[in-house]
């Protein structure tokens, strides 16, 4: 078992604490939270050990789980890495690309592993079909959420859209060529609604929409590729594959068939892959433990987290060329 400590005991930090306590791969040593009042309440409510400083916690563990506000990710990661601790760091990896690259460099210099908390990679609806996603040429995502003051310290791109950016980058084997985007601020000081068009060198195009002031929640991505359409509902944890193949000579009477102008018939097949329910946060934490213990590459590397941040910042930079309402 790996000795682990959590930095940050807010909403998500408490979830991490609970899951690490349950995990058979970690020994939860304790946590640090800068709010003495919150730390006291967490100790009283759950019985976890509270440390009086970041350094004290880092000294007591092998793995540091950073679940603090984005603004403090770099400083927390730097302290942990320089003491030779492996780091799990919530998304986005850092506030700026300069900080993200510094984290990567430090981790390499000190020979420690790092994983970024892009949790949707572990969503069972996505894992059920990810091996079926093959050279998609058009991707459309909608990530809509009802308003929640938590997270409004950053643009909706870093709060919500970055999840889909990471998923898309993991599925498209090509470099990003160009980005076009617009954002609107309605309630917050930063954009609450954003739309981005990401173009890849291989011709793939991804259209992403994110909102944190929606009347309903939605987390859905659709992949269009040669002879197939794949839908992933990250919220309901359901996925569907629609395939188009040459129609057989002996068609079933209930078969769905399309005929083009040349008279070529194509049959439509529907698949609903089996989705095994899981706890995605626990999975991402435990696969990181596996990467440390087996000396393998984490599923979501620091490089992955940095690239997702780079594209997210590119999207945000596009806002500067428009009049944000």
TrEMBL record:
Top-level taxon: Bacteria
What Pfam families does this protein map onto?
Answer: GFO_IDH_MocA, GFO_IDH_MocA_C3
Which region is the signal sequence? none
Q: Which organism is it from?
A: Polaribacter reichenbachii
Q: Residues in domain Gfo/Idh/MocA-like oxidoreductase N-terminal?
A: 2-118
Can you provide one Gene Ontology molecular function annotated for this UniProt record? nucleotide binding
Q: Which SUPFAM superfamilies match?
A: Glyceraldehyde-3-phosphate dehydrogenase-like, C-terminal domain (SSF55347), NAD(P)-binding Rossmann-fold domains (SSF51735)
Residues of the GFO/IDH/MocA-like oxidoreductase domain: 156-217
Q: InterPro entries per the record?
A: Gfo/Idh/MocA-like_OxRdtase_N, Gfo/Idh/MocA_Oxidoreductases, GFO_IDH_MocA-like_dom, NAD(P)-bd_dom_sf
Query: What is this protein identified as?
Result: Oxidoreductase
